[in-house]
Amino acid sequence: MQELLLEEGDRMKEEVSSGSSFSLLEWVSKFQTVAWEAYQSKPISHWILLFLSSLGMLVAFPASSLLSRVYYANGGTSKWIISWVAVAGWPIPALILFPTYLFFKTSPTPLNLYIFLSYVFLGFLSAADNLMYAYAYAYLPASTASLLASSSLVFSALFGFLIVKNKLNASMINAIVIITAAMTLIALDSDSDKYDSVTNSQYIWGFVWDILASALHGLIFALTELVFVTFLGRRSFHVVLEQQVMVSFFAFVFTSIGVIVNKDFQGMVSESKTFKGGETAYNLVLIWGAITFQLGVLGGTAVLFLASTVMAGVLNSVRVPLTSIAAVILLHDPMSGFKILSLFITFWGFASYIYGTVDGSKLS
Known about the structure:
This protein is mainly α and 364 residues long. The protein has one domain (77-362). Helix content is 82%, strand content 0%. It has helices at residues 2-17, 24-40, 44-73, 79-88, 91-103, 113-139, 142-149, 152-163, 170-188, 200-232, 237-261, 264-274, 278-306, 309-330, 337-363. The two termini are 17 Å apart. This is Probable purine permease.
């Protein structure tokens, strides 16, 4: 579908540049025709699944971020608990994976030592990544934390270039510079959105942990792609689900060890009693936090295989402003002029990166 739209778009651009009497109305009409042909080329079930997967990315991921902030804003204090919640829902993709073996006649990927060790290592990195993000959401407003987390695109591109030898073109480099500038704007405007209960030192550390977590997130993406290229050699949907289940499981194991050592499981009882809204609200925040995080990951995985990496990138860029806007409306996050400017610059950076990805795919 993507290739068809691109080819038709290029042809229409050539007609416009040749000086023909090609009106905007005719361009829109031709684009609608191509889009309709693309729609008819797939069964209705494909578009329903794509819609639900896109909804998962645009709703579940922001909801997970907001719930993390709700936990801290209403009396929660444990960073380990929030990082544990992010992977506690690992059985959810497993429940989707196992039926694929039965109904689609697929077989589990043979497990060797290298693949096993890669799952363990990626699980450890994911556990560390979730813990860093937990510290960020403990000290930063959700809108600020989500904007800073968008820098993971920068690190994904850089680590992909260094580790997997992915190509970088001018548009992608431009996106890296733009998003870095947006992060700098947030740093310069730190006094406008700091909570009264958060010290200057905690705010700075929240900023640092968010950037470090984004860097580690980018490294995990690059290493995951390297595992597929080196060890798995294929990217069918059930293979990606297997990887997600195994990495989430080992992240769950590592995080559970941290929670036990820190004695946070025992602390959950007393924490739930002092939580604003009571024990029921406390449990609902944690349960829905686990569900929404896994649904967001599942949605992103499905979009990659039902559409393209470009569409996944578009949705990922859209969810950043959605999270920030939702945080302002629902959690009453402060939104200064600098943060609004940073939001627009970040969106511009995402658009530049997506353009570079499309342009690179056309040249390859």
